[in-house]
Amino acid sequence: MLKLNLQLHSAPGSLSALREATFDNLQLNCGIFIKDFVYTGTGAPANAEDMLTLIKAIIAGTDTEHGELLGVTRGGGTFNVGREMRDPDIDGLRYKFKGGTFVDSADPYLSTTLVETTPENFALALGGTATTSGKITTVKMNTALTDDAYMDNLCWAGDLSDGRIVLINLKNALNTADITFTFQDKSEGALAVEFHACQDEVDDYDEAPFEIVFFGKGT
Hints:
Elements: E1 27-35, H1 48-60, E2 68-69, E3 73-86, E4 102-114, H2 119-126, E5 129-133, E6 136-140, E7 151-160, E8 165-175, E9 180-182, E10 190-196, E11 210-215
Antiparallel strand pairs: 1-2, 1-7, 3-4, 4-10, 5-6, 7-8, 8-10, 8-11, 9-10
């Protein structure tokens, strides 16, 4: 007699990380870039709602003490952390071992394309200065970088789908990309930038010069 050996299997593709919390953890849209953003200290935002109120005031121009908006972007942006990692060349070392890899350097940066053509954005891109006399503002590039070429920080702020806000903060940000300003018919001028974070002190090796901060919703 022929016997059928039936086994029950899950449907193909049923093994998935998709869960209810997935839709709370999605980062939405392009976010915004804020120069010299002050979000710590006295009266600092304690949650996402406070942070949103502060950001909206900066966007509206009613709060000029806590940051300056760079303006709208095209194509969103990218956050990268380039790392130079090294395993020592030692006789007898056959495998990689936990604790045996060293981070020699880290290079965190934010890149985007700015489409608001302002003297301030050109000055940031060039590491230069913008001076105003009457109705005329002139931007010049300094061949020797001074402290003024660096922003105290550059922050990208974005929404999460459940109402939280995530912040990426680069300390002492400087644009190191070649200056590329593109313009064409039936389009808008676009300024590509790539801002890299820098350490404050020559002996600061414990942490890379950036942080990622999540602001949760208030109770």
